Amino acid sequence: MADDARITDSARTRAGALESLATGQLDPGQARGEWSETLNRHYGELDVEWPRADSSFEAQWTGRAFGDLHISTIHAQRHGVVRSPAMISSDGVHDYLVGLIVDGQAEITQNGRTAQLGPGSFVILDSAQPFRYSCPTDFRQIVLTAPRALLTARLPDRSLRSATARTVSGTSGAGVLVTSVFSGIADIDSDISPASTEALVSSALDILVTAMTEAQLPLSAPATARDQDLAVAKHAIVRHLHQPDFSIGDVAAELGMSVRYVQKLFAAEGSSPSTWQLEQRVERARKYLLTTNLTVSEISSQVGFRDPSHFSRRFRHAFAVNPQRFRNDHRGASVEQIGTDPCMSPSAKSSEVTEPQ
């Protein structure tokens, strides 16, 4: 491999090390091998379809982790990729992929549907389902990889499955914001704090889900209404995570729904309001442990637990270690380098680390 074919910028540790691959200096066989390896490593096992096996292949790829997401840019000559059931069984990758075309065209097939993309439009793919992604011309695109749990927390599996391989315009409605936000994240070239990264990730996914919903996915009217009601109920729970007394009855009263109806909304995706609320509290605590200088006791209070001991037990159940051990094992930056979450109360923001928990 040429010395400059693959570059890793390990200095950008907070937003993730920047990786890149350029095939222009490589012979055709080497270029194809390096390209296939890069795609497989970052998007799951794929079979690359080349227009001509003996011709040169020029392409550039850059990517990095951005919080819980991975963002990458691809500028390449025409080719395609296929993901088969055997590949899915082999690697167990179940992430969602969002492909945003900047230049060129793409044709995507999944779940019996085919989407045609042009500049400014985007599509969502489920890597747990077979798909074909073909670009018949030279192209440039942005690819966002999101862990499955981050999207299923915002939309039911049924809605996400219906959303795959459907063209969403990035030039009108909420799609404009998707294009702007994803392009902005891909272009970030400076250090960014963990707290800001977490906030941007959450906002980016919320905007993506809004654009998908706005595209009026072809579910039945009752199913669409239930999915929208579930999303509203989840947002209400998240808004009040810091309040330990905020009950399912409070959710129902705030939204003008019955308690039974709220319970049925969550039951349809195999959960319950209280279980989902607890999962979100523990997940927010995980983020605070990594991105703030609050003590474990303070975090426990901020995410709605009355008793730090109860919080520690629930956290250990979810992550197999206690909160302080998790923080020590996963947070590379020192406390002085880390800011506070902008959603916290003023008293919590002003707190200092006084004792490990």
From TrEMBL:
GO terms for molecular function: DNA-binding transcription factor activity; sequence-specific DNA binding. It comes from Mycolicibacterium helvum. This is HTH araC/xylS-type domain-containing protein. PANTHER family: ARAC SUBFAMILY (PTHR46796:SF6), HTH-TYPE TRANSCRIPTIONAL ACTIVATOR RHAS-RELATED (PTHR46796). Residues 333-357 are annotated as: Disordered. SUPFAM superfamilies: Homeodomain-like, RmlC-like cupins. Pfam families: AraC_binding_2, HTH_18. It comes from the Bacteria.
